[in-house]
């Protein structure tokens, strides 16, 4: 269904509205109407109406199937038999929009070439435009002669059409178009304004990759041969480009600057504005060079034409950011624009005044803006708020009047982005101007009393929790915070609970009152609020700890996330992409969370049988010693890698089993660490039966059972598999724990003589590609290029849109590997990745690329 278009009539016609004539048209119905193209007696007006509807559908995003497009195209070609000029123009448009295939182009080429040589100039111009849009390079050579003649045609419409077509063809057939330089050079001297404009654009496109040629072009044309205002604007832009590339000569002057300055005295207003803008945008422009441009722009500020006033004040607004003193002379003229009927002009004027004003003019500007803010849209208000923030940072002593102004507009009606800009400005002023902290926090507290935006309420509460305890009287903020617990939604209530906890952690005198308020939160209807209240009561009361010192508690309450929140959101959006999971598992580059890392470093490892958490970066000597002492595994060679233990049972089950994967060049040994958690049982002849039906490349060659497994005494049983050397063999293994269970007398501790065979189903185990890569901290070997250091690159900087991670490892066979991963955010929920692998063995690099590509 086509989109509904509503067109308003003039205001003096009672504000009536009428609907578009295309309202409700459907593609199927229009295609049926297109059958009129086949009528023996063509109705030109009817055909024009149908083509108009087809063009409307195409421009609204409707797509035609291959069959539909072909049928419409062939039907349209039949309309060439009509002599109606209006219908012929519609036919040209239709053919250009349909973009026929190479096979179909041949059908219409003869008709278009006939029109291109017609005596009717309108036919010639349009035929050239359409033909150049649909033909390929092969057909282009056949009509090149006609196009070169058209460029120097006496009729400006034909010449302009040929030049515009040349600009388009330059993208697809540059070599052909470059042969037209002589004709285009002649067209630059044309007296027709549009021809001169298009000829200059095409000539620059032909020469743009040759800096010397562009410089010669500018030199020849700045002598006064260009008369068209549009062409002069183009020439000014090309001149600015040459000036930027040339820099300043030895005498301190810029080449061609005199030309830009002379354009300020041109009769055409567009040329004057373009020259002034070009001068103001020059690199390292001086006040002397700016003066003539500023003078001209100041004259335009009082023009009767709104477009000139807007262009002038917008250019001055940009200049004020870098050269505020140069714009000061225009302040009186810009103050009169604050009341301009065009709100865009008024907004630019006020923001420019805020950039150029001095400390004494701040109060006067604030009075003028009071009524001004209510008359403009939110998008303009945001620009004003950002300018006020910059002014306040420039003149810190004026923070009272500027802060009061921000607080007043914060209470007025407005959208989320507008309110957020004000809140962000107040927060920045509080951080950068210490004297503004008390008043700023008070204004924010008043705002959250009647704030309709959850995001802003939680942002202010978080900021209040960090800055409020540092003020002279922190207790006055408690009322505002607790009001949020009573009156707001669950998200804001949870944030308020965290803020209360921060006050209690930093101010001992307030802790009893905070306890009372947090206990009331224990009866909240939301789980998150209750959980936070419970946690903070335990922490502040000393019943639970998150570290060894008070500093750890404060870090837990006030510290930021180790990973930026934006990165977490992005990761959540791509978590289903196995590629990224495989890469990080391949190199085992995950960081241990802070709390787990502190706990694990406080305990001594219990040896190979203990369930050590975290990845093993190097070969454990205790594992190597244990395996070499077992005769069945003695001839397997040197141990390459031992993985971290993989749990095969739940935490609270009867038997606890985890497995360590030991990787050799031609074998894999699975070490099952077993623990009996039932005091009344003794397990004997403990063995793990491994089903390798889903791991075709592995062959079981040895098994070592565990003779006895008493209560709470860890033991190991082993199963070894042979695999092809040099092959990344992967697969899934099913595991069943089999044993003989004997009852144990609790009083004597002796087991019965007879036992019962039993078995216990374990979780499946997978051998993955990551098992063949050993992570190392850094490589300094004889590899070509510099040594790559992985340390530190696994942390993405805050607010970063791209990051490069350097990884190093050793692939099985002692092949050293370096990987560079470059990530970049290409869309709100999309991440692009570039992978580069370097190793001693190119085949290994190819294998790692295959692993990533296959997911």
TrEMBL record:
Coiled-coil portions: none
GO CC annotation, single: endoplasmic reticulum
Any one GO MF annotation of this record: structural molecule activity
GO biological process: endoplasmic reticulum to Golgi vesicle-mediated transport; intra-Golgi vesicle-mediated transport; intracellular protein transport; protein secretion
Keyword Iron: no
Record domain Clathrin/coatomer adaptor adaptin-like N-terminal: where: 28-540
Function according to Swiss-Prot or TrEMBL: The coatomer is a cytosolic protein complex that binds to dilysine motifs and reversibly associates with Golgi non-clathrin-coated vesicles, which further mediate biosynthetic protein transport from the ER, via the Golgi up to the trans Golgi network. Coatomer complex is required for budding from Golgi membranes, and is essential for the retrograde Golgi-to-ER transport of dilysine-tagged proteins.
Subunit structure: Oligomeric complex.
Full protein name: Coatomer subunit gamma
Organism: Miscanthus lutarioriparius
Lineage: Eukaryota, Viridiplantae, Streptophyta, Embryophyta, Tracheophyta
């Amino acid at each position: 269904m086509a989109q509904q278009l509503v067109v308003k009539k003039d205001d003096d016609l009672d504000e009536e509205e009428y609907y578009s004539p295309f309202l409700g048209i459907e593609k199927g119905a229009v295609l049926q109407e297109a059958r009129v193209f086949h009528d023996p007696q063509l109705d030109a007006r009817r055909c024009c109406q149908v083509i108009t509807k087809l063009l409307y559908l195409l421009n609204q995003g409707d797509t035609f199937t291959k069959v539909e497009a072909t049928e419409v195209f062939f039907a349209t070609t039949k309309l060439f038999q009509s002599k109606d000029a209006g219908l012929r123009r519609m036919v040209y448009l239709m053919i250009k929009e349909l973009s026929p295939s190479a096979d179909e182009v041949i059908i219409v080429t003869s008709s278009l070439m006939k029109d291109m040589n017609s005596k009717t100039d309108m036919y010639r111009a349009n035929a050239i435009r359409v033909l150049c849009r649909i033909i390929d390079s092969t057909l282009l050579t056949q009509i090149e002669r006609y196009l070169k003649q058209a460029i120097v045609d006496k009729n400006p419409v034909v010449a302009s059409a040929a030049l515009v077509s040349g600009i388009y063809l330059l993208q697809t057939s540059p070599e052909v178009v470059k042969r037209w330089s002589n004709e285009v050079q002649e067209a630059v001297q044309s007296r027709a304004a549009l021809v001169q404009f298009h000829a200059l654009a095409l000539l620059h496109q032909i020469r743009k990759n040759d800096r010397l040629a562009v410089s010669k072009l500018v030199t020849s044309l700045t002598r006064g041969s260009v008369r068209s205002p549009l062409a002069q604007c183009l020439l000014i832009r090309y001149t600015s480009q040459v000036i930027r590339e040339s820099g300043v000569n030895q005498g301190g002057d810029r080449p061609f600057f005199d030309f830009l300055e002379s354009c300020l005295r041109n009769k055409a207003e567009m040329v004057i504005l373009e020259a002034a803008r070009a001068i103001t945008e020059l690199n390292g422009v001086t006040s002397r060079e700016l003066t003539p441009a500023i003078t001209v722009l100041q004259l335009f500020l009082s023009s009767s034409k709104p477009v000139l006033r807007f262009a002038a004040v917008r250019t001055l607004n940009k200049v004020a950011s870098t050269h505020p003193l140069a714009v000061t002379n225009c302040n009186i003229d810009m103050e009169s624009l604050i009341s301009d009927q065009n709100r865009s002009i008024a907004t630019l004027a006020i923001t420019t005044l805020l950039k150029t004003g001095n400390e004494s003019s701040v109060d006067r500007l604030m009075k003028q803006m009071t009524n001004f803010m209510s008359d403009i849209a939110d998008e303009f208000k945001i620009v004003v708020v950002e300018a006020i923030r910059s002014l306040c940072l420039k003149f810190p002593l004026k923070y009272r009047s500027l802060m009061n102004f921000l607080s007043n507009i914060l209470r007025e009606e407005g959208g989320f982005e507008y309110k957020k800009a004000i809140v962000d400005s107040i927060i920045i002023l509080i951080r950068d101007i210490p004297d503004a902290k008390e008043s700023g926090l008070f204004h924010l507290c008043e705002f959250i009393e009647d704030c309709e935006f959850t995001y802003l309420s939680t942002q202010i509460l978080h900021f209040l929790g960090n800055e409020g305890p540092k003020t002279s009287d922190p207790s006055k903020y408690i009322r505002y915070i607790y009001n949020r617990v009573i009156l707001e939604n669950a998200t804001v209530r949870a944030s308020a609970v965290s803020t209360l906890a921060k006050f209690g952690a930093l101010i001992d005198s307030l802790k009893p009152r905070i306890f009372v308020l947090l206990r009331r939160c224990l009866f909240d209807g939301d789980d998150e609020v209750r959980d936070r209240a419970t946690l903070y009561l335990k922490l502040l009361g000393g019943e639970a700890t998150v570290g060894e010192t008070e500093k750890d508690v404060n870090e837990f309450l006030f510290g930021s996330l180790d990973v930026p929140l934006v990165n977490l959101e992005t990761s959540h959006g791509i978590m289903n992409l196995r590629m990224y999971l495989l890469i990080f598992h391949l190199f085992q580059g995950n960081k241990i969370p802070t709390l787990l890392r502190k706990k694990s470093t406080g305990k001594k490892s219990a040896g190979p049988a203990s369930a050590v958490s975290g990845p093993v970066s190097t070969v454990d000597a205790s594992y190597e010693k244990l395996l070499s002492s077992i005769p069945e595994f003695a001839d397997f060679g040197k141990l390459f890698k031992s993985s971290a233990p993989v749990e095969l049972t739940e935490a609270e089950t009867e038997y606890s089993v985890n497995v360590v994967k030991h990787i050799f060049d031609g074998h894999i040994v699975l070490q099952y660490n077993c623990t009996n958690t039932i005091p009344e049982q003794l397990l004997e002849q403990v063995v793990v039966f491994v089903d390798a039906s889903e791991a075709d490349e592995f062959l079981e060659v040895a098994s070592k059972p565990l003779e006895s497994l008493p209560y709470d005494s860890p033991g190991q049983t082993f199963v070894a598999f042979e695999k092809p050397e040099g092959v990344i063999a992967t697969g899934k293994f099913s595991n069943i724990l089999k044993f003989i269970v004997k009852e144990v007398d609790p009083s004597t501790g002796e087991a019965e003589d007879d036992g019962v065979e039993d078995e216990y189903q374990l979780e499946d185990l997978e051998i993955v590609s990551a098992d063949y890569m050993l992570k190392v901290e850094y490589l300094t070997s004889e590899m070509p290029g510099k040594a790559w250091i992985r340390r530190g690159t696994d942390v993405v900087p805050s607010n970063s849109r791209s990051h490069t991670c350097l990884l190093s490892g050793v692939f099985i066979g002692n092949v050293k590997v370096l990987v560079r991963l470059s990530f970049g955010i290409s869309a709100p929920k999309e991440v692009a990745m570039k992978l580069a692998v370097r190793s001693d063995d190119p085949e290994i690099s190819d294998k790692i690329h295959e692993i990533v590509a296959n997911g």
